[in-house]
Amino acid sequence: MFDTIRHLSFYTILEEHVRSYPGKIAHAFGGQSTTFAQLLERVDRLIDALETSGVVAGDRILWLGQNSDRIMELLIAASQLDAMLCPSNWRQSKTELAAQIDDLEPKVIFWQNEEVGPEIRAGRELASFKGGRWLQHDGDGEDSYESFLASGRADRNDHREVDTRAGALIIYTAAFDGRPNGAVLSQNTILLENLVLAPTQRISNETVFLAVGPLFHLGTLMQCLTVFHLGGTNVFVRRSDAQSIAQSIHDHKCTRTWLVSKTMDEIIELNHDRRYDISSLRSIPYTEEWNRMVTVEPVETHVPGYGQTEVMGLAVLPQYGRHAIGIFGRPSPLCHMRIVDSEDRDVEPGQVGEIVFRGPIVMNGYWRRPELNAQRHRNGWHHTNDLGRREADGSLTFIGPKVQMIKSGVENIYPAEVEACIRRHPAVADCGIIGVPHPQWIQTVKAIVVLKPGSEATEKDIVEHCRAQIASYKKPSSVEFREDMPRLASGGVNYKLLDEIYGGGNYPGGETRTS
Amino acid sequence: MFDTIRHLSFYTILEEHVRSYPGKIAHAFGGQSTTFAQLLERVDRLIDALETSGVVAGDRILWLGQNSDRIMELLIAASQLDAMLCPSNWRQSKTELAAQIDDLEPKVIFWQNEEVGPEIRAGRELASFKGGRWLQHDGDGEDSYESFLASGRADRNDHREVDTRAGALIIYTAAFDGRPNGAVLSQNTILLENLVLAPTQRISNETVFLAVGPLFHLGTLMQCLTVFHLGGTNVFVRRSDAQSIAQSIHDHKCTRTWLVSKTMDEIIELNHDRRYDISSLRSIPYTEEWNRMVTVEPVETHVPGYGQTEVMGLAVLPQYGRHAIGIFGRPSPLCHMRIVDSEDRDVEPGQVGEIVFRGPIVMNGYWRRPELNAQRHRNGWHHTNDLGRREADGSLTFIGPKVQMIKSGVENIYPAEVEACIRRHPAVADCGIIGVPHPQWIQTVKAIVVLKPGSEATEKDIVEHCRAQIASYKKPSSVEFREDMPRLASGGVNYKLLDEIYGGGNYPGGETRTS
Predict the structure, then answer these.
(1) Computed from CA positions of residues B94, B99, B100, B105, in that sequence, does the dihedral angle turn out positive or negative?
(2) Who among B19, B360, B361 is closest to A394 (CB)?
(3) pLDDT band at A456, cuts 50/70/90?
């Protein structure tokens, strides 16, 4: 099954980088730099320590912390054991964390105390699964990350056979049906996507990438993976924070990052006296002040393309459709795309249908969701739950999610998940969630609630109930109470009417969503 | 073994191009253009016709003709049957052709009458293998290519399971040991290399590539394959000829090709009255006159990188080593490289050793050469038979072939092969081949011959003997007769002394060759 001479994996790539880039910095984080040779030694120790802890093929390793270079070294180590790393969303509530622990039943858990410790401890308490070895990322005792790493042998010269088609990474995503699902991605899928991302995102061995966005989303993580594969340098900050960002760009001469406009404004303000030299950053033009501080590069396109976690981030890119009608472009050389109706028949160009994919960038499936996998991968194609249209020249216009979704900043919020949470409140009979336009966050969440006869609850009660159960960014910003829920003939909530009554709008995909 | 949802093959890529590039020209050859949709229909018919002819997985299909778009459609069709296409070197002698037919035992042979017919018929006669169906590429009767294609069904909608790791293409190469060997390359290997070639060679869906070089070498064929994969257009000329080249660039607005300086001069002379518009060509700067006719693009580098057929053409590229010490660059993201001594131990940076590779671009092996494969792939690494040196910054300096080789134009000539041919002459006792510097062809072949006692042979006898048995470009341009052959203590021919006596030199790799 496994053919040594044609083998390519995170681990063998790291070995090559030690030969190809002697002395080069692989990772930088918090004033600490790690060369490729040092990284290989750390990974070797981790492999040994994980194996000693009983980690075997198919096991899960859970990261409950913020951004760190350790996520990358753990991923390389885990993959060499055919085990999987899941970098968890640290903004989750204790209830969500407990559900994730129970879903994954991880063999080893790395957790962070600072900022997120109380919620994690509460989630651990809540979880039914009581196994797994807990190690503290930011501790320094016996059960700390560094003690664990140091317990492993460095000289293993690891040349075991590894199945690069097996799952290596689990990213939770898309709570269409009310609960998040873990997309399982293989080394093969990741390494192939890297080869498409490198040229289209202009990532090379000269790139010094500053990872600001959360590594529990592919948006930032896939760039780190491509930078690693190409032999560039990854710099990490714990979370988005203007001061750490400016300091990191200054210290490491970062050439690339991705920042929201609010953060760019904060950096401009912070750096009014030019104490940080951030001119190494090749950045898109923004404000005049920003442009004076960074290297402004001509940008070919501002359209990011189309994809989702389940197809390793990006599947359709504008670089394959320059001058095309559909601004999202065409499928990358790694995938095939069809637009289909509800019976999986191709629709004509110009007609809207569901976008489906095939190719090596499709995930292995969701972790422990056999029915959902059968449904999403029916007839040999991955169904995205997204709507799109092929234009006359074969290019794609992405329309929007097939089911209702709310966009808050970079986060996707699935009404079904928030509704399920509110319905669990003892006073609630029914609930509908809409998105209300917001100048900075695109949308905010509004709950329309019907109480049980004789029950009472205030707006604050509902919001606090949500805060305890789901990630803070998913909780409603406002709650409206009604006597009854308007429903369609089909039985579904009449969201169009709720939008009209309560000012909903600005949804991704506009008016085209179907229910 | 085969996972539908992650499948990527020549055939599925062609299906996607029909959707992504409706109406676009896939191939142009001799005034005839073929859209992707038409190509899919032709490939479907070919698959059916080949299957009806009994072609099954592992079978060989032999192309005995010059450049044609049919090589590409046959490759796609053959690969869908897990069969292999071998585009043969049409400059081979009847003896070489016969040996190749016997080596491959092909199920179907497509042959060309024009220019190469007599030699092919003689080779067919000479071959021991008498099986295989012979079809004429440039005929129009019952046994012609088009009749064969037309006999296949077009509506098969072929979705069979294909093993993309199986051999799809056989390219004969490297007669280090006196006979050429067929490197077997899989779809996987080809498709992956395409992803590296596209950005480094600036090939995109907007490329219109004119294939001038022979398609029996990867140099040109790998570019056609990348252009196909990316959705560009391939234009073919039968062989290098200034008039056909200029006409094709004019007709199809070709953006890319590769020409030797002699051909560029011929085009300049031919086009003195500007009857052909060849300005679409994005070309390297050459003479002033040439620069006025084409679009002169700034070129980042003139160094092509390092590779060989056995690693799908290019493995080390200067794009991964900008500003590096070794101008050949660093290994691509698809392979790993070591520099080793005769015991396969790593040599220190700065030391010369044999270049060895690992990764998905390594060939499956040579066709029917189990011992040679074991030797070349020993210890899990592909041994290139080439010498190189890692510089202090990890980059590669390519030194030259480990065994003596002569370079004539773009062709590699292996002394062992020419010597073996001359030794078969009844009057010859011993023979040594050297390369003599030539202002246009880099080197020409000189034979030093020792005759058997009492035997006689003239220079013309030896040259004609070679002409009948090996490709014309390999035959000696001159022959010197001696009483005895100078030999080393090891028993090998003392080539250094022969070079000194007879003016040998200008070898690829200079003085560093080892025997």
Answers:
(1) positive
(2) B19
(3) very high
Residue B482: predicted pLDDT: 92
Q: Which of A230, A231, A359 sits opposite B6 (nearest CB)?
A: A359
Q: Are B412 and B418 in contact (CB under 8 A)?
A: no
Lowest mean pLDDT among A14-18, A318-322, B260-264, B403-407: B403-407
Residues of B in contact with A3 (CB under 8 A): 165
Which H helix or E strand runs over B252? helix B242-252
Q: Which of residues 100-139 of B touch A (CB under 8 A)?
A: none
Q: Does A466 lie at the interface with B, CB-CB under 8 angstroms?
A: no
B300 CB-contact burial (10 Å; exposed 0-12 / middle 13-18 / buried 19+): exposed
Contacts of B3 in chain A (CB under 8 A): 165
Euclidean distance between CA atoms B276 and B253, whole angstroms: 11
- Look at strands A295-296 and A282-283 and give their pairing: parallel
B450 beta partners: B430, B482
* Domains of chain B, each with CATH number or no CATH: 4-236 (3.40.50.12780), 310-401 (2.30.38.10), 406-512 (3.30.300.30)
For residue B195, give the nearest of A196, A362, A390 by CB distance. A196
Residue-wise DSSP of A172-226: EE--TTSS-EEEEEEHHHHHHHHHHHHHHTT--TT-EEEE-S-TTSHHHHHHHHH
Angle (nearest 5°) at CA B277 between B274 and B279: 115
**A363 CA to chain B: closest CA distance, Å?**
8
Q: Is the CB of residue B67 less than 8 Å from the CB of residue B215?
A: yes
- Tell me the pLDDT tens digit for each residue of B122-162: 999 999 999 999 999 999 999 999 999 999 999 766 678 89
Q: What is the ipTM of this complex?
A: 0.87
Chain A residues 190-209 with a CB less than 8 Å from chain B = 191-192, 194-196, 198-199, 204-206
Question: Nearest-CA neighbor of A307 among A388, A234, A367, A373?
Answer: A388
B333 at the A interface (CB within 8 A)?
A: yes
Q: What is the mean pLDDT of residues A309-323?
A: 95
Mean pLDDT of A290-308: 84
